[in-house]
Amino acid sequence: MDKTYKIVYCTPSLYIAGGVERVLTMKANFFAEKLGYDITIILTDGKGKPNFYPLSDKVKVINLDIDFDELWSYSFLGQILPYLRKQRVYKKKLTAELMHIHPDITISLLRREVNFITKIGDGSKKVGELHVNRKKYRYYEDNNTNFIKETFAKFWMKNLIGHLRKLDRFVVLTEEDKLAWPEITSVVAIPDPMTFYPEEKSSMTEKRVIAVGRYEYQKGFDLLIHAWAEVEKRCPDWQLAVYGHGNRTEYEELLEELGIDKARCHLNGPTNNIQSEYLKSSIFAFSSRYEGFGMVLVEAMACGIPVVSFDCPCGPKDIIKNGEDGFLVETGNVDEFAKALMSMINDFGRRETMAANARRNVQRFKMEEIAKQWQCVFDQL
User: Fold this and answer.
1) Read out DSSP for 145-195?
2) Which CATH class is domain 208-364?
3) pLDDT, tens only, 78-113
4) Dihedral Cα 170, 175, 180, 185, nearest 10 deg
5) 221 membership: H or E segment, kind and range
6) Which end of the chain has less neighbouring CB within 10 Å, N or C?
7) Rounded (to 5) percent helix, strand, coil in the chain
């Protein structure tokens, strides 16, 4: 019989429609409903705001109402003193809650509490859970950095390493990122669970390529559009559909600049039924410059569509079996990305075989399988 545990998660909020919030909710629900764990989630922000994703009644939520979100209204330097004051209050309140709950395991999603959580003497094992890769943790884009920010980031990372070494376990999402933390001896890799595995699968008959993500530099939609400019010339009956949040203006201007047919290249906003859009597509294009994992890859493959992906850090090489269920292309190599898309477009038989392989291979990301990996960590602790 599996052991049951009392577990506390520490994270900023649950009202945002983010990947971390979705994954945490999935795990908390499964642990509480299926495994009988005593789960509590302690929040610092979003007091009075409803959870975005449905949370089981068996999961307890405590909001400490620290309101770190308030700091975003200050300048970079102006955040320092208010942050320190809020941090002192957070440490005091979190310590009181953990001493009262006495959990077996406390899991930090590596936000503000990572600085002091190992000093709280509540008797619980302390685990850190990271949802981005190391290179992009506390990272500033080239157009949003300066000497002060870069110096702060270096100091912050050095300080972080010291705290991570004190954790009982440090969990990252990929084997690739695990290798990026040589200073940490307690690091293990556990991927995020897939959000759905539909009974239905793509018919592979729609001549449509799909891409999903925020309209921002990280997702590389500019690279995808450049690749599509080549594809549309040689594959005149195929379309590209992109879905996501964010400002599309610069990408729409790029379509104009490259003379791309807007009747066949659709830059859409977000959809509340992305599963349906996957099922109406035959190829998934993943153009990210970097990732923490790449859940949209798993989602698309679960719907039975093969993928063409940049081999960016981190995630794709942990998910895709190159040549079996998709193609991995050198990151940023637009010409090779276009060639991979056209290769898949022009070979229906191979595309169909890859689609079947994709659907089968991603079953290892089902919640039941990911829960077993977490159970193993909990048992070891």
Assistant:
1) --HHHHHHHHHHHHHHHHHHHTSSEEEES-HHHHTT-TT-SSEEE-PPPPS
2) alpha beta
3) 888 989 999 999 999 999 999 999 999 999 999 999
4) 40
5) helix 221-234
6) N
7) 45, 15, 40
First and final CA of the chain: distance in angstroms?
Answer: 17
The amino acid sitting at 22 is R
How many Cα atoms are found within 13 Å in the side-chain-facing hemisphere of 238? 24
Name the amino acid, one letter, at 290: Y
The fold for domain 6-193+366-380 equals Rossmann fold (3.40.50)
Domain(s) of CATH 3.40.50.2000: residues in the chain: 6-193+366-380, 208-364
pTM of the model: 0.88
Please give the sequence-ordered ranges of beta strands (E in DSSP) within the chain, or none if there are none.
Answer: 6-10, 38-43, 60-63, 105-108, 125-129, 169-172, 187-189, 208-212, 239-243, 265-268, 283-286, 307-310, 326-329
Token pair, residue 169, equals 């376990």
Dihedral, CA of residue 90, residue 101, residue 172 and residue 215, to nearest 10 = -50
28-35 contacts at long range (C-beta below 8 A, 24 or more positions apart):
28/55, 28/56, 28/59, 29/54, 29/55, 29/56, 29/59, 30/193, 30/367, 30/371, 31/7, 31/371, 31/374, 32/56, 32/58, 32/59, 33/58, 34/371, 35/2, 35/4, 35/371, 35/375
Torsion angle, CA of 224/180/324/200, rounded to 10 degrees? -70
Tokens 């191979």 map to which residue?
Answer: 350
